[in-house]
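Q: Give me the 3D complex with flavin-adenine dinucleotide.
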Amino acid sequence: MSSTQTHHDVDVVVVGAGFAGLAMLRELRDERGMSVRVLEAGDDVGGVWYWNRYPGARCDVDSTDYSYTFSPELDEEWNWSERYATQPEILRYVHHVAERFDLRRDVTTGARVATATWDDDTAHWDVTCEDGTTARGRYLVMATGCLSAVKRPQVEGMEDFTGQVLHTADWPREPVDLAGKRVGVIGTGSSGIQVIPRIAPEVAELVVFQRTPAFSVPAHHQVLSDAERAALKLSLPERREMLRNSPTGLSVPVTRRGALDDDDAAREQHYEEQWHSAGFGFLLAYNDLLISHEANRTASDFIRGKIAERVTDPALAEKLSPHTYPYGAKRPCVDTGYYETFNRENVTLVDIAAAPLTRATATTLETADAAYDLDVIVFATGFDAMTGSLLKPTITGRDGVTLQEHWAGGPLTYLGLMTAGFPNMFVIAGPGSPSLLGNVMVSIEQHVDWVSALLVDSEAAGTPVIEATEEAERAWVDRVNAAAAPTLYMEAASYYLGAEIEGKPRVFMPYAGGLRRYRRECDEVAREGYRGFRRSPEPSTDLQPA
Ligand SMILES: Cc1cc2nc3c(=O)[nH]c(=O)nc-3n(C[C@H](O)[C@H](O)[C@H](O)COP(=O)(O)OP(=O)(O)OC[C@H]3O[C@@H](n4cnc5c(N)ncnc54)[C@H](O)[C@@H]3O)c2cc1C
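A: Here is the predicted complex, encoded as C-alpha cells.
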C-alpha cells in the first residue's frame, strides 16, 4: 500500500489517517458518494495509536466512549477488553475498522504532505508529498491531529550520546528491551506518567527528569467482564446520546454544585468517592473547579494530600506536588501507580526546574549540578499541540498567503473548521474547536458529520466554493477568547496556550465553551444557511486560451 509516486485526482484530499481522517473517508465516500484520497505520513493507519507505542500507552477516556458511533454492527461485533484500552488494542480496533469498511484502498501511506496550494482559477487544491506523491481535489481536509507534531527539545550534545534515544510519540515498531538498563525519562506529562510506572520494575535504574509536576488521579483500569461488556452494550444508545449532549463528551455524571456548596466533611467525602471511581472525570467533581480559585484550591489540596499519602518520603512528595498552576489548567493526568513508583529504590526524581538540563555527553545526561549515567534516554516531551501539524506543511491559500502568515499571531478560525482566505480547506479537531478539552472522538464525529453535510448542501446548491468570511472568523476568535477568559485555563503554561513551545504565540487555542454549546452553535449556523460562510459557484473551467 506504500506510495508509488502516483497522482490522485479526487473530489476530496484528506491529510491524515487517524480516527478523524478515516471517519472523513468513510462518511464522504460511503455515505455521500464522493471520491476521496487520504494521504498519511506513517506506514499504516491509526494516527496517534500508530505512533505512540510506548509501554503503558492507553486512552484515558472509557474505551466504549472512545469509539466510532456510526455503525451499530461495528458496536455489536467489537468487544473492548478493558475500561481504558491499551495502545495495541486501539490500533487493532482501527485496523478492524479499516478492513471492515474497506478503507485502506483509498489511503496512501508513507506520504507526508509537504505543500498544499489553492488554485483560484480552477478552484482546486494541489497537494504534494515528500515522496513525490501528488493529489488534486476540490476540497482539502486537514485531519492531521491535535497531538501529532512531535516536540523534540534541543539538548546540547545529544548527538554525542552513544546510548539509545527514544521518543514516546515516535516509539519503534520493533520491541524495545529496557531490562537491566539505566534509563532516563524526560517529561512528566500524560505520556511520562503512563510510561514511568510501566518500565520502572524492569529497568536497573530509572531517572525521571521533571520540570513541572503534574496533578494525576488514579485511572482505575479494569478488565471488563463479559457481564460488564454486555451491560455496556445495552446502555450504548442512551450513553451515546448523553455523550453527544454533554459539555465534555465524557460519560461522567456532572455534579451540579460548586465545591463550596458542600461543607468540609461532605466535600472531602465527595472527593474521596470520586477519587475511587472517576478517573479522568475527577475534574468534574464540582462544576466550578475550572472557574473559581477557591473551589479549585480544595481539589488541588485534596490531590496534593493524596500525593503525600502515596509517596513515603515527604520531601519527595513535595517535589512531586504541583503548586504553580491550578488543577485542570493543564490536561489532567490519570495514572496507575505513578506516585508510588517513586518509593522504589531504583527510581530517582531530578528537578530540572531547580537545576536545568545542561547537556548530554557520550554516556550521561547532565543538569546544572549533577551527571547521570544512562544507557537509554526517553523523551516524553509531548507535542507542538493543535497547530504544529497544520503549520509544518506549507499551505498556501488565496493570493499566495500561507497559513504560517495568516496564523503568525496565533490560529484564526471560524468554528475551528475553516480559516478565511483558505477556501474549501477544513480542519478536523483543530484550534477553535472543543477538541482537546474533552473526548476528542466526539468532536471528530461532530466535525465529520457537519462538514460532510455542508459539502453536500453546497454541491447541491451549485456553490461548491466555500470560505469563512473574515468577519465570521474575527467573531469566532473573539468567542474562543471570551470562553477561555474567565477560566483558570489561562493560568498554566500549557499546550492549550502554546506555552510548551518557545516562540509560539500565547493564545488559548481550543474552544472552552463546551461541546454541547459548540454543537448547538454549529447546528444553528447550518440552519441559517451556513451563516458566516461565503459560498460561490465553481469558476468555469472552459476558459478561452489567450
Ligand atoms: C498517547 C495519547 C493518548 C491519547 N488519549 C486520548 C484519550 O484518551 N481521549 C481523547 O479524547 N484523546 C486522546 N488523545 C488525543 C488524540 O489526539 C485524539 O483522541 C485522536 O486520536 C486524534 O485523532 P486524529 O485523527 O484527529 O489525529 P491523529 O490520530 O493524530 O492522526 C493524525 C494523522 O495525520 C498524520 N499527519 C500529520 N501531518 C501529516 C502530513 N503533513 N502529511 C501526512 N500525514 C500527516 C499523522 O501521521 C497522523 O497519523 C491522546 C493522544 C495521545 C498522543
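A quick observation: Residues 152 and 200 are 23 Å apart (CA to CA).
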